[in-house]
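To fix ideas, we quote verbatim a fold written out as tokens:
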Amino acid sequence: MRRLLGVLAAAERWTGELLLRSVTALSAAELGDCLASLQHQGLAVSAVASRGEVAIDLAHDVVRAAVLEGLPAAEIRAAHEAWAGALAADRDEIGLYRRVHHLVAAGHVDAAAPLARGAADAAARHGAFGLAAELYSIALRAPHAAPGPLLRARASALDEAGRHAEAVASWRESHDAASSSEDRVPAAIGEAHALLASGAFAAGLARLDTAAAASGEPSARAIGVRGAVAAIGFLVGPRGRLRADATATPHEIERVEREVRAAETLSLHEPVASIGMLQRAQARALRLGLPEVAAWCDYLFAVRALCGRHRAGPSRLAERYRARGDRLLAGRPPRLVEVLVYRGFVAFWMALREARWQDGVAIAEREIARLERQGRSGSVMHLSGILARIAIDVLRTDIAAHARQAARLHETALAVGHGTVGLQLVITSADTMVFRGDFEGARRLLREQLGTWQRGLFGMSLVHARLALCELAEDRLAEARARVLALEAQQRPQVFRTVFSGVIAARMAAIEAACLRAGLSGASAARLHKLTRIARCAPPLGLPLALRAEASLAEHDGNIGGAHRLLLEAERQAERFAMPFDVARARYQRGNLLGGATGAALVGSALDLAASVGASHRVLDRLP
């Protein structure tokens, strides 16, 4: 019975009766007696499997832990040895992995190492990238193993699992073990991507420069003239033709795929610098006859075009990139999950630009689920998908949904290390505080980031924009206005050249309106009108707020009728685009404008509506 307990504990799963007899060397009668005794004691359970065979397991993980702790280590090792021997003839992928597992647990790592490569490859194919990385580490201990391919495979698996900080060291090992430039360059690019994805921005750029220099290509940071040329090339639209007769080597395929991943991650930090890198990668993919990789680039460019178009309406440039990507795929199902996901992201940004919230949520969730099924939870793409989902919750002020997605983002990011979304984690936490009406806490949290992150880092503009709103809510009007003026001066014209230009302009207009009402020196109606014109021409994400800012100015000028008409329009637009909290804001402002019984009824209705979406009444009172 003791031997059966050890074997069941080592199995870590339900086991068929025939296999269990083979491992324990017990007869059917002996096994039946032992099992009956264990079941009587509540230590084991049995069930009839799908093919009619009886399957057996320990009753609970607590029992397994107690057995593993109570039995001598030698007996546990013997149980694992017995399992490894019984599985020697099992050639399927699961059997191979189990045999490696039991050999390692029995202390026979050298015997497990030659088998581990096949088990690791199988784990990677099924999306179990963390397991694959561990198995590649075991495979490296085989006496005659070629370290180069195994080191690259382990580093790649760590990257796919979102364990970028660990991948950095593995890529460095791969680079140092390489004997040729065709091996060293992909390893350097892989290390750069892992550094960028783990949040080590400066080190990642430096490593990209190393890879570029080794290939005779320009630095990734060469924004100046090269950046202008890249930007013009991007605006021209899809270029180059696929060489259908080309044949790429595995090294060439690996390199270009890594370049695209690195450029994708770089775009989260330096969108302009990433364009040139992505263009070079796409040109290489077309030259090598790699339609999937070239299509992946086109979908990335389409997303960039959608995010960068600041005016309302469709983006013809994005449509051209998406159409070329579709033509390159020619209806074939792509091997790379990234291609499918980014094609989905194109549809997401099209929906967001038109404030089609439910469509956007459905698309984002579909692509997030696709990545999770592929074992890519925690990857840059996966976290980007969650952030895209959160963007909708913030724009709609859907507080309950935002809380759920913020928890999801934090849980996922913490599982793999904050990495490249560290700043976004802070911004998300600050948004949560603002929704609760804790403006002081949000302002304090955001101010802490000013000296932590690189000054020009893309995303710091989001920190400053939110800081300004918190300062406005706390009546720090001069600070809020000075902050948005500095932001505009530092990042003009880029600050008004994104899909969110209307939101940014509307927030600046609200600050300007508050400063005008307070009589702050320098505030001007001309600036407010300029900002609201930007918001009116942009995608409608900030339109209700811009209209409320105009109404505030009209009220200040004594034009009560004009202010009322603008607030009615703000409420109508908020209802049109399913933004309930913006409806409440416009109604609240209109109630305060009208006063009396009518105004009190409107204020009460606004407070009820705000409460229904989980917003603090303080948010209605303090934010524009």
Residues 357-436 form one domain.
